[in-house]
């Protein structure tokens, strides 16, 4: 039985997101198979929201595509030209581990546009908060090339458009994907008015970024926070990192809007990450950010989908997050909740040491 929603939560999705192809070649030694980033897991998130009845409590939002001009706020003209050319042909690799098929540039414009639609709808008050279930993801895409399945920097582009067109000035981006949000970091590296906070598995991907000591550059020093956590971190480590680093940093920054790069690859069953979050823990983190947004910026919270490669577990993570945003529990049991009872879910000494170090480096009060 779905509880009526307490809040108007927008939900962005589009069938074309599932048409984006990512199959990759692995060389001559093994038969090609589907890439880790595939349509199935994302489609299941939407399908689960429909099957549980939760979708009836959400506000459907149709994405509007970004334009080339919107993309030029961050990406180079040469990169956009290359994407358009390859997309008009057979597709190809946009850079590093970013394979795509025909038509994917247009899908990527609609994906970034979906993130924009979520942010715009929150800022205009059409909804209280929103989740954009977009594909391809965006947080690894850099100025001049695609990386890690990401073609366009969805969140960075949408935030830049919102600042240019809707008068919002201070935006905090919290990235809970298991990988470092390097593209978002690059977009705002010297910008003091966009706070970027990435909580990720230490030294995962990209392998040369996400270090605790990289705090931004120029006027942006102090507005980029990396919180690398040791592999194996579970609910205890994430709650500690949120309580002691993420939330105090966002509070100190005083944003007008909070945007979340929402990857479910810190889930315990994810094939690419080595963290241990349960769907319930993702729901708790979402609830904490919702409360924080209510405290700081009138509840204005928009989430944009990133990674999450367990096609069976990620949908339940998505369900718990959508329940938290809307305040509409479905009562549907998570068949994978056993992971919340795995050993090592509580904060360990070495994880606490990593959080202590982040508190110190980022100049946050010890607690
Ligand atoms: Zn990821």
Write a structural description.
The chain is α/β, with parallel strands linked by helices and 367 residues long. It has a single domain, classed as Histone deacetylase domain (Arginase, Chain A). It contains ten helices and twelve strands. The strands form three sheets. An eight-stranded parallel sheet has the order 2-1-6-12-11-8-9-10, with helices on both faces. Zinc ion binds next to loops.
The dominant shape is globular
Give the rounded overall mean pLDDT.
Answer: 97
Number of domains: 1
Measured distance between first and last alpha carbons = 40 Å
Question: Numbering strands along the chain, what is their spatial order in the largest sheet?
Answer: 2-1-6-12-11-8-9-10
Which hetero compounds are present in the coordinates? zinc ion
Give the H and E element order.
EHEHHEEEHEEHEHEEHEHEHH
Strand content: 5-15%
Which structural class do you get from the secondary structure elements? alpha/beta
Structure, briefly:
This protein has 367 residues and is of the alpha/beta class.
Keywords:
10 helices, 12 strands, 367 residues, two-stranded antiparallel sheet, binds zinc ion, 13% strand, Arginase, Chain A, alpha/beta
Strand and helix layout:
Layout: E1 9-12, H1 39-51, E2 59-61, H2 68-71, H3 77-88, E3 92-93, E4 95-96, E5 99-100, H4 104-123, E6 129-132, E7 146-147, H5 154-165, E8 171-175, H6 182-187, E9 194-201, E10 224-229, H7 235-253, E11 257-262, H8 279-297, E12 301-305, H9 314-326, H10 349-361
Parallel strand pairs: 1-2, 1-6, 4-7, 6-12, 8-9, 8-11, 9-10, 11-12
Antiparallel strand pairs: 3-5
Helix pairs in contact: 1-9, 4-5, 7-8, 7-10, 8-9
The chain binds zinc ion.
Zinc ion (ZN) is lined by residues 177-179, 263, 265, 306-307.
């Amino acid at each position: 039985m779905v509880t009526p929603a307490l809040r108007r939560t927008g939900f962005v999705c589009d069938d074309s997101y599932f048409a984006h192809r990512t199959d990759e070649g692995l060389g001559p030694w093994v038969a090609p198979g589907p890439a880790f980033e595939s349509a199935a897991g994302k489609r299941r998130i939407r399908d689960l929201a429909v099957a549980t009845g939760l979708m009836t409590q959400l506000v459907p939002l149709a994405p509007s595509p970004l334009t080339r001009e919107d993309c030029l706020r961050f990406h180079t003209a040469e990169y956009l030209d290359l994407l358009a050319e390859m997309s008009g042909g057979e597709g190809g690799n946009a850079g590093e581990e970013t394979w795509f098929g025909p038509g994917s540039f247009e899908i990527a414009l609609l994906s970034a546009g979906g993130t924009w639609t979520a942010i715009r709808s929150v800022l205009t008050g059409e909804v209280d908060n929103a989740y954009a279930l977009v594909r391809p993801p965006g947080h690894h895409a850099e100025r001049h090339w695609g990386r890690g399945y990401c073609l366009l920097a969805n969140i960075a582009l949408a935030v830049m458009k919102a600042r240019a067109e809707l008068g919002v000035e201070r935006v905090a981006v919290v990235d809970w994907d298991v990988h470092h949000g390097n593209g978002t970091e690059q977009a705002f590296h010297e910008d003091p008015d966009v706070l970027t906070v990435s909580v990720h598995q230490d030294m995962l991907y990209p392998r040369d970024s996400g270090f605790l000591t990289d705090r931004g550059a120029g006027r942006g020093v102090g507005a980029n926070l990396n919180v690398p956590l040791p592999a194996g971190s579970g609910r205890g480590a994430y709650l500690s990192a949120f309580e002691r680093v993420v939330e105090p940093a966002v509070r100190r920054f005083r944003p007008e809007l909070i945007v979340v790069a929402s990857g479910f690859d810190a889930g315990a069953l994810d094939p690419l990450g080595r963290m241990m979050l349960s769907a319930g823990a993702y729901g708790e983190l979402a609830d904490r950010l919702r409360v924080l947004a209510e405290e700081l910026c009138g509840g204005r919270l928009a989430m944009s989908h990133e990674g999450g490669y367990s096609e069976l577990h990620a949908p339940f993570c998505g369900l718990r997050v959508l329940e938290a945003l809307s305040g509409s529990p479905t009562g549907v049991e998570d068949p994978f909740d056993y992971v919340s009872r795995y050993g090592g879910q509580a904060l360990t000494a070495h994880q606490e040491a990593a959080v202590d170090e982040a508190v110190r480096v980022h100049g946050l009060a010890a607690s």
